[in-house]
Amino acid sequence: MLNIVLFGPPGAGKGTQSEKLIEKYGLTHLSTGDLFRKHLGEGTDLGKLAKKYMDEGHLVPDQVVISMVEDKISNTEGSKGFIFDGFPRTTAQAEALDVMLANNGMKISGMIALDVPEEILKERIKERGKTSNRADDQDEEKINTRIKVYLDETLPVAKYYENQGKYKSINGVGGIDEIFMEISEVLDSY
Ligand code: ADP
Which domain holds residue 170? Predict the structure, then answer.
């Protein structure tokens, strides 16, 4: 089984690369951002709760995210493995993920981090905001908040996997296919 954490700041291209990876490797995509947006669209209580945080660019509380991921993992059968996209975003989430996977006889194969400079991230998110209909993509201040939250709360997660010898960073600037090839090489080495 291949279980990959695709890591990087907002706008790094995790969603784009995930789509290609699912197609090539037949993995199950688990994007916490997508799951929250689905709840939001369906108007569930979880969606309403998450919206308050998401719209401002803040993180949804760990326990809410962890329960949602646990639910998704235990309700997925016969998977070849998962691509975790946008999760774990805090060290507490990373620790919880290790426990849940171990309980299901699984483990993380590795983390692949997409490295993109801040200025390019901001440009990409603003461009995406023109069509994405996401409140958190539309406003400069919210974009800045998300990047700050990433630096303060999420970046330590890279260290967590580095300490386990599972961290690999890739240049996230360039052609989509070129970046995909580099990610594929790392995956094929697991
Ligand atoms: P991006 O990476 O482009 O910011 P995502 O779709 O991954 O977008 O996440 C959108 C928002 O959803 C985040 O800003 C946050 O509010 C919430 N969210 C997603 N994943 C998590 C998570 N693992 N922990 C806490 N909040 C999350």
Answer: 4-185
How far is 178 from 188, CA to CA, in rounded Å?
15
Both tokens assigned to 35: 């799951």
Q: What are the pLDDT digits (tens) for 92-111? A: 999 999 999 999 899 999 99
CA distance 79 to 96: 20
Phi (first) and psi of residue 125, to 5 degrees: -65, -40
* CA gap 171, 169 in Å, rounded: 7
Residue 190 in any domain: the answer is no
Active site residues: 14, 89, 128, 134, 146
Whether the model pTM is above 0.85: yes
Q: What is the pLDDT of residues 52-66, one digit of tens each?
A: 999 999 999 999 999
Q: Which atom of ligand 1 is nearest to the CA of 93?
A: 23
Map residue 81 onto helix, strand or coil: coil
